[in-house]
């Protein structure tokens, strides 16, 4: 038999023969791609949420928008990634070999053994020996206060008929997220600090990364939905009950959870294809997707691409909805000539805006770069948006909201009457 050469990599020329135009073309195609995503997502969202569009014509239009999303997402990200990184080589299967195989590097005879299901080591607070117990006790105290505050909001929204409006239904959903986020991210931290066992099984780490990503993505969309709710309440108060009906409220909240689940599933499935070599130490107190990507010795270009594209879609869409809502809110507030009315309108949206700015700033800081420059700073920022933000949300909403304070008073009166 004669010798055969089997090519396992292909060279994508793309726009490599136009070096002077690569940056302008990258920005041009990125802008078109983002506009395509936003426009088609908007069409799909409108058709799903607006009962007037539930007719065959718009059903077909929704399918067309889905196809447009898929076509652009299949072709454009690869070109954008190549333009940005100047990397042209791609495997025939468009992804690396299955985890657990031997990898033959092109530039050397060294073979690297990959482990498909390793055990990870979570540093947690173990490298902060002098501060481990004080920080642990502080986080436990914050966690318990978070549970108490958010469970109180959920309880009040459930039992008080005055709070069963879209604004407080969304706030109840936010409280569920604020309870779940520190519970998912902090469970190993509590266990590891008490027992001294920092090992985490592969399946457990993947599950934790999936649920944390789901909660974080859902919160982005839910904050955007709450911004739209505040826009309708302040800018269209007479039509608020019609626009934000209970059905629309449930649809919007469900859409936020559904979108968060989809984005988290996409990222987690892309993680499952990765293999890990000798380094399995996670510099953090819980498993995050970007940390699992950093540790892998497989080709992670697809994962980094997904972080920039899928992550950018979710963050940019949520940010645009929030930004435009508050632009119109601010314009409406400035038109109000009565000081009392202006102050009331401002207080209605200021609590939510505070929460949005606090959550967006910390998460964007941590995820805008897949490779953080300072692991300790990244860990501290993670503590802020996984512990402090869920802890502060009930305080921000309750201290600035007279209806919640009144609901607490009514609940206490009801309890006192029951005891008597």
Summarize the structure.
The chain is mainly α and 420 residues long. It has twelve helices and seven strands. Strands 6-5-7 form a three-stranded mixed β-sheet. Strands 1-2 form a two-stranded antiparallel ribbon.
Please provide a written account of the structure.
The chain is mainly α. The protein has 2 domains: 12-90; 112-419, Rhodopsin 7-helix transmembrane proteins (Rhopdopsin 7-helix transmembrane proteins). The chain has helices at residues 22-49, 56-85, 132-159, 166-195, 202-235, 240-243, 246-271, 289-295, 301-335, 339-367, 375-399, 402-419; strands at 9-11, 89-91, 102-103, 112-113, 119-122, 199-201, 281-282. The strands form 3 sheets. The chain has a 3-stranded mixed β-sheet. Strands 1-2 form a two-stranded antiparallel ribbon. Helix 7 packs antiparallel against helix 9 (301-335), helix 9 runs antiparallel to helix 10 and helix 10 packs antiparallel against helix 11. It is globular. It starts with 8 loop residues before the first strand and ends with a helix. 32% of the residues are buried.
